[in-house]
Amino acid sequence: MITPRPAHLQPRYDVVVVGGGPAGLAAAVGARESGAERVLVIDREPEAGGILQQCIHPGFGLHHFGEELTGPEYAQRAIVQTLEHDVDVLSSAYVLDVATDRRLKVTSRDHGVAFLDAGAVVLAMGARERTRGAIRIPGDRPAGVMTAGFAQKLVNLGGVLPGRRAVILGSGDIGLIMARRLVLEGVEVEGVYELMPHANGLNRNIVQCLHDYDIPLHLSTTVVHVHGGERVQKVTVAPVDDAYRPDLGRARDVPCDTLLVSIGLIPDNELAHRLGLRLDPVTTGPVVTSTMETTRDGVFACGNVVHIHDLVDYVSQESMLAGRGAGAYATGTPTPPDNVRLTPGENVRYCVPPTITTDREHTVYMRVSKPMAPCTLHLGDVYQRPLRYVFPGEMVTLKVRPRFLEGFHGGSLTVSIVPREEGGSA
Q1: 77: helix, coil or strand?
Q2: What pLDDT, in 10s, does the model give residues 112-140?
Q3: Which of 19, 231, 270, 348 is the S-S candidate for 344 at Cβ 3.0 to 4.6 Å?
Q4: Are the C-beta atoms of residues 359 and 382 closer than 8 Å to each other?
């Protein structure tokens, strides 16, 4: 769907959203629903929709739209919903800078360099893939080494195969999906190699993308060397010990002409650094409140900029909240301050948001450090819930309702996930 661009830019908007992916589009809708009249979405791509445009596989929308959609279908619905709310979408544009007074410097093909004032700003730039350089794989630097997301763009949008025999390093969801996609296009996928003793993608992707296509998954194994001249000729793989040190005595060579790297995503926080926002050392995204406001007044963040999500449905739900918060801030609507801090406990790496209020329902997102089954989730001593299993590759969500916090007016609650034997029955 071609997104119409505004013929003229206003000097001031109630809310400006940086990023036109699913997070930015949902945030814009949330801002309009909370009373913001002039809302602008700025996206650097020619069309809004973000990464969804290249995700042609199904599996999106079950939670947010109530039916299974492909990525482009989900993006189209989000764009239509945004335009129906009279939101301006400026594509082929880039935000060069955001000042502390929420003045944005924007460059675009249609309007050149422009300065915009905003009542509130929402950061929704998404995430970037880690590259080979992030984990410093030794060896040559031939053609054929690329991230799984770039390979997905080549195949699904460009109609170009990255190679004929591929090795995939890392078991992130994009790598798993590309393993299946390459097999469907006639590419031989030798295997997926994962450093950790467990996969890092969703269980459904492990089953549907690897097991259903007989693609081997090698856990506790990594690539230790890349060989090749102009093109990749082979890679050397080796098992790792409990400290993740490769056992070179058991290394072996795997002939291939392509190495896809799927080793995780990093929140795109260039603007967050420029604004001097406080960043969480675990998620590497901005620290936010229960309304998704950052440590800078009037600046909100949502989606993969804050923490990496499994499902785009969760991104949309979280971003609607950020948009509502931004709209309320821009229109001067007061919001109660957070009065409960959530502290990660046993087998919980982080909680987003880290603070909540006792007066309304909150959805808290968290990730675990290690697999565990069966287990119990504890919210301090005020609530507990049994879980069949938890897995590092799958986000855990908890709806904290006001009735859980009756009689609790402030302070800190530890969120932990413990084995069922220790946690007792819930």
Answers
A1: helix
A2: 999 999 999 999 999 999 999 999 999 99
A3: 348
A4: no
